[in-house]
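INFO  loader      accepted 1 record
INFO  loader      residues=961
INFO  predictor   begin
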Amino acid sequence: MLRFLKRNTYSILIIIIVSAVAYLTYRPNTFLTGWDTLHPELNFSLNFERMFNGVWREEQGLGAVAGHSHMADLPRVVILWLLHFALPLSSLRYFYVFLCLLFGPLGMYFLLKQILERRTRNIEHEEVLSSKLYATSTVAFIGSLFYLFNPGTVQQFYAPFEMFTSQYAALPWIVLFSLKYLEHSSNKKNLWLFGLVTLLAMPQAYAAHLWYAFFGVYLLFLIIYTVLNRNSYHNATSGVKSGNALPSVVGSFTNNQDDKKQFGMTKKAVTLLLLTLLINSLWLLPNIYYIATSSSVPKESKQNRIFSQEYRVRNQENGYIQDVALVRGFYFQWSVFNFEKNRFEYLMPEWRDHLNNPVVASVGYGFFALSLFGIYLAIKEKNRVLKSLLPFYILPFTLLMNSTPPFSWLFNILLKFSVFEEALRFVFTKLSILLIFGYAIFISYALLCIIAKFKNRKQTYPAIFLLICAVLIYGLPLLRGNLISDKFKVVIPQNYFELWKYMESQPMQPVLTLPLHTFSGWQYYNWTTSTSKQGYQGSGFIWFGMKQPVLDRDSDRWSIANEQSFRELQYTLYSQHYNQFYASLEKYDIGYLVWDTSVITPTEKNRNQILYQRETIDTIKKLTQAGKLKKIRQFGTILIYKVVLPKKPQILKINTQISPSYRWNFIDQAYLDHPEYITTNKHLTRLFNYPFRNFLTKTDRIKPELTASISDLKHAIKFSSERIIKNQQVPNVISLKKDGNTSVVELRTKNFTRGIALQNDTFPHNLGYAIGFRSKNIKGLPLRFCIKNLYSSLCDTYDELSHSSVMTNDYFVIPPYESGHGYGIYIDNISYGDYETINELESVTIYPLYYNYLASQIDVSGVRKELKVLHNGSAFNDGWIAFQLQISNFKFQILKDHVLVNNWENGWVLSNQSTDIGGQDLKTENRQLITIFWPQYLEYLGFLLLLATLVTLSFNYKKKS
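INFO  predictor   done
INFO  writer      dumping C-alpha cells
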C-alpha cells in the first residue's frame, strides 16, 4: 500500500485538489444550467432518439438540417445515463463537468512524464537517475497544476459548455497515446487506448468548428513529428555512410532498416489520422453535407448577420500580448443579468479583481516567459517531440494575437474567406484550450531544464515549493468556489417537469412559445421567489424535455422557415389582427401555444408593454371565444393552449399556385386569400402572381429595383444632417462636417457607444412606412438603428446599415400596426476595445407606404386544376425525397415534382404522375407513400464505420494480448 501511495503520490494529490475545487463549487439541489445549455438528462429516451436520427432536427420548430453535430454528444449522454442510476438528476451535469476537470490535469501529468522522461533515458548512474525521475514527476505535477489553475481553464468552466470541457479533458490523453503509439515499435494497446479516448472526446465536436481547430493542429503535430523523425533516420544513415569502420554492405543493410523505420513512422501517423476520422465519421459525414448545402443559413440569419461582427470585435478586444500571455479572453468584459438587482453586471467580477492584482498578473507573465524559454530550449536541444508539439502553441497564439501586428494582418486575411469568417467569430473559445495546453508543455520543459541544474534533490525543494505556491496563487479563486458562476447554479421550478410530463401524453404538433418580443435567441426567465433571487439566462432549454417540435428563437438561425414564421407570427400578434394571427398558426400547423409568463426582457422600463401581456391576453380571449383556441392546462407561470385546427390530410387537394416564393416578409397575403397553395417553377395549375411578395433582400432591405420608385413618393419627411445634429452635438464624438458640397454627421467612438435620437409622436401606426438612411461606414462597425414603436416600446425594425465605404442608401420597411402613434429612431455608433468606429450619416427620410395595397396586388393566369399533393410537415429542403412503394414486389418510384407548400413545407405533386410499378394506378391500396431525409443515412454509415473500427481495434488488441 505504501509503495502504491509513493508511486502515485502526485496523481493522488491531483485527485484531492480537484475534488476540493469540485466540493467548493457544487451547490446541492441546483441544476447547472444557463448560457449555452445541453440537458439530455431531462428525457434520455427522447434525446437518444434525436441523436440516432440527428441529421434532420425535428425538434427545431419546423425542422432544420443539423448545424450542430448533436450526435457527437452521444458518448457524454451515455455516461450521464449510466450515472443517473446512482446520482440525483440535478447533479449529473455537475458530475460530468467535474470529471472533465479531473481528467484534464491527470492526462497532462502523465503526458508530461512521458515527454520529460526522455531526458533521463541515457542516464546510467542509479542515484542520478532517481533524482532526475523525481524532478520529472515533480515538474509534471507542477505543469498539471498550471493546466488546472489558470484563467484560460476557468473561462471554459465558468459558463460551462460540454464541448469545451470535453476537449479540455481529452486533449492531453489524445496526445499521450499518440506519442506512445508512435514511439513504440509494436503496441496495439496504445492504439486501442487512443481510439477509446478519441471516442470519449467526440462531444468536443458538438459545434464542429472546435473540432476542426483541434484536428488542424493535431494534423500539423503528426506531420512535423513524422518529418523530424524521418530526418533523424536520414542523418543517422548519413553518419554510417561517412564512417570508415563499417563495410558498404553494412551501410546498405542499415539503409534498408532505416527505410523501413521511415515507412513505419509514416504508416503510424496515417493510422492515427484515419482512426480519428473513422471514429468521428458518424457526425463528420452529416456535417460535411451541412457545410456544403446549408452553412450560409445561420450566417444570413438576422441574429448572426447583425451580431457576428460585434462578437468578433469583442473577442479582438483581448488580442494583445498582455491578455494572450494570461489567456484572458472576452469573458472578462462580458456582462450577465442579475435578477436580484435587475441589472447587468460583469460575468467574472472576482476573477477580474484577481487578475488586476499586480502580484497575480506578474506571476502569470512569469509563467508566460517560462513558456517562451521552454520553446527556446526545445529548439536549441533539438527535442523532436517538443518541436512537433509547437503547433499547439504557435497556431492558437498567432490567431489570438489578432489585434497586434503582424499577427493581425494574417487574421484579417483569413476573415476575407467565408469559411473562416464564421469560425473565427468566437476565436477565443475555439483556441484557448489548445493554447493553455501548449503553455503547460513548454513551461514544464523550461522548469525541468532549470531544476536539472541543481546538484542534489534537497536544493530543489525551495524552488519547487515556490513554484507550487505561485500556481496556486495564480488560480486562487478556484479554491474559493469560483470555478463556475453562481448565476448558472439554478433551481429549475417544478412547473417545467409538470409541463414535460403532460406534453408527453399529447399529440405531436409544433409548439409556439410566447412571448414573441424579440428575434434574439437569448432568453431570460425570472424565477425569483421570496426566498430565492434567481433566474435562467441563455439559449433556452424546454425542448430537451418536450417531445413536440418547439418554435423558439434559438431555432430560427438554423432555418429560414423558422425565422420567417416568427416574423409572421410576431407581426400578426403585435398588430392585434387576431384572425391573421390564427391564420399564421394554421399555416404553420402549430398545435399548441405555451405562454411562460416568467420570461422577461432585461429592460425594466415598460417591461409588460414590451412583452405585450395585455394585448396577448386580449388576442387569446378573442380566439377562445371564436372557438379557435382552448386553454388546456396551467402549471404555475406556464399556460398551455390548444390551437383548434381543421383536420389536414396527408394528401392535400390544391388548385392554386402562387408566385414568387419569398424569404422575408411580415404577412403572407397569398395564404389569407388562398389557404393551401404550392410554389414551383412549373406551371401546374392556375397561377396567382403577387409581384411585391418578395420585395425584401436577404439582408432585410427593400430591393434596389424598387427603391427608385420609393424615393419619388410624396409626403416624405426628411431629417437632414443639420436637423439630425440639432441639440445632439458632442465634441470629438458627434459633429457636423462637410463631405464635398454636402453636410454630414460624423460619429466617432472608441471603446464606448454613442448615438443619435430622433422622434416623431404623430406618425400613425396604421400606415406602413419606408425609411431610408444615407450613410457611409469608414471604420469599424456600421451604424446600428432601432425604429421604436412608442406604443409597444419595441423596436419594430432593428438592423444595421451598410458596411460600404462610399455613401450608400439603405431602405427598410415599417409595416402597419393597429394601435398608437409615434416612432423613435435611435442610431448607435458602437465600438469595443481599441477598435475605433467612424461612420457618417447624411440623412434619414421617412416615406408613407401603402403596404396593404402593395401586398394585395396580383396577376392571374392559367386554368384552375386540382392537384393531389403529398406533404410531410417539415420545412422545405432538397434533401427530402418522396417515393411510392409497391408493397407486393417492393418496387418503388421516386416522386419528381418536389414543390413548396405554403411557402415553407415540402410537397410532392401526385396527380398526372406516371408509373411502371406493376402497371398499377397510384390510387390502389397496394402501395405506400414514404418520405425520407436521405442525408440521415450518412449518420447511419458513420455508425457502421465507427462500429467496424471499434471491433477491429478490439480484435487486434485481444489477438496481440
